Amino acid sequence: MSIAYGTITYMPSVERGAGAGHDQGPSKEQKFSPYYLAYKFAGEDLTHQACTLANELISNTEGSELIAFKTRINSGHHVAVIGPRPEGQELEEKLKEMLSQGEPVSLSSMVLKTLWSYRDLLKIWSMD
């Protein structure tokens, strides 16, 4: 899979709790829980650098279908890595270490659905 970069701006949603990968608390939204890691960064430059490095690592990992996105949520700079859960823990550990300059966050189901849909579109476009 080729490297795909994307920036999604999504303002109405809110981050929830600390700790990435889990949608916490009751929600009126339908349950949707793909694998993801999400981190909030202090600025756009750090976000861009982290996203670029994450996508390079992902593209150099055989069989990985993850993708990293730069996102702006409620004026915050985030990197979200989404896709099928990687086999083993090595890739996940490397991604967490690479993104450790940011603060782990949870994302709402609505934001995850938006990113997942965008991921699917990028996969379709990269088939051409």
Q: How would you summarize what this structure contains?
A:
By secondary structure, this protein is an alpha+beta fold. It has helices spanning 44-59, 90-98, 109-126; strands at 7-10, 16-18, 35-41, 67-73, 76-83, 103-106.
User: Please, how many domains?
Assistant: 1
Strand content: 25-35%
CATH top level class name: Alpha Beta
Strand order of the largest sheet: 1-4-5-3-6-2
Total number of helices: 3
- What's the mean pLDDT score? 78
The first-to-last residue Cα distance is 12 Å
The third-level CATH topology is Alpha-Beta Plaits
Query: What Rg do the Cα atoms give?
Result: 14 Å
Walkthrough of the structure:
With 128 residues, the protein is of the alpha+beta class. The chain has one domain: Alpha-Beta Plaits, CATH 3.30.70. It has helices at residues 44-59, 90-98, 109-126, and strands spanning 7-10, 16-18, 35-41, 67-73, 76-83, 103-106. It has a six-stranded mixed sheet with strand order 1-4-5-3-6-2, sandwiched between helices. A hairpin with a 2-residue loop joins strand 4 and strand 5. Helix 1 (44-59) packs antiparallel against helix 2. It is globular, with a radius of gyration of 14 Å. The protein starts with 6 loop residues before the first strand and ends with a helix. Residues 1-32 have low confidence and may be disordered.
